[in-house]
Amino acid sequence: MQCPQYSQHQTHTSLFLFPKSSSPFIFPSRSRLSPHTKKKPNMAYSTLHTIALSSSLSSFHFHPKPKPKPKPKPKPSLSSTKPFSLRSHPHKMQHQQVPRVSTGSNVVQDAVGGAMALIQSSPATWQSALFSNLLIFLVGSPLLVTGLSLSGIAAAFLLGTLTWRAFGPSGFLLVATYFVIGTAATKVKMAQKVAQGVAEKRRGRRGPGSVIGSSAAGCVCAFLTIFGVGGEAFSQLWRLGFVASFCTKLSDTVSSEIGKAYGKTTYLVTTFKVVPRGTEGAVSVEGTLAGIFASIVLATVGCLLGEVSSYEAIICVLASQIANLGESIIGASLQEKEGFRWLNNDAVNIINISMGSVIAVLMQQALLGWHS
């Protein structure tokens, strides 16, 4: 069926399709008029030219492209499972402890830390005593060679090891203080002493006999402490005897060396006869005062280090002076006399410091008995 307003030659239609609608709407568009038609086409769309396009439009239906289904993930098998790695889980690394990598600085720090722990071990052990003495002797070797011979250094090393094992670092520092003060006093006016023939052998460098003679009583007290002889009740007595023995020896050394250097007049202690400097058993005012002061200094050091109490420090000073007086009497009356040739300086030193140690212990016990 054909509309008369339009020519048979051409008829254009505009097809508008809506995706959600299954029936198309066809609207006429502007077309060429027949030359016999004078009127304009009626655009009111009174006549709708429809064409059955159901069969032809069936192919114009829009079907959305289906989304591809995700491929199912294969189930992991035990053989294909990868081992857990912290690199794939960086957020878990904060809960994991990463092993420490050893470097040069870490090795040095560990070595220093281990050495300090060994030195500070309490109570002291033989290992800590050996290590500490070896370290101190290496560092202080320039000072040691000025006051000791090589064999004397070896004897002093044994003494230092024993002292550290028995009384710890405080006891060792006490002995070191004794050595420094004694060596300094020995070096005073050395040229004058050499010229007068009163200087110590090897210009004051003492050998193993002098070291052993100066520390024999202290070594006995150290062994008594190590083996716990008498238990806790006697441990402080052995400590007191140790300090008193070195106070006695330091007082004897300083009084002798200062007396040789500055003593104006020296007297024989048994007869008060004026004798030359360096005579065995001779004393001087200058040397005696210097010896008392030296014993006070060392006893104070022992008190500050906690080796003895304040009243025990006073006991050490008194015992040292009594022992030095006894040593002067022995030297004046027996040393170098017929039948006592064996009584040399080292033997007299052993007697001297043993007297100081024993007198200090007896005085302390007497005071305790008197107070009780």
From TrEMBL:
Residues 59-102 are annotated as: Disordered. It is found in: Membrane. Its main location: membrane. The chain crosses the membrane at residues 134-160, 166-188, 209-230, 287-306, 347-370. Signal peptide: none annotated. It is a multi-pass membrane protein. The keyword Zinc does not apply. Pfam families: DUF92 (PF01940). Residues 62-74 have a biased composition (Basic residues). Coiled coil: none annotated. GO terms for cellular component: chloroplast inner membrane. InterPro entries: DUF92_TMEM19. Keywords: Membrane, Transmembrane, Transmembrane helix. Belongs to the TMEM19 family. This is Protein VTE6, chloroplastic. The lineage of its organism: Eukaryota, Viridiplantae, Streptophyta, Embryophyta, Tracheophyta.
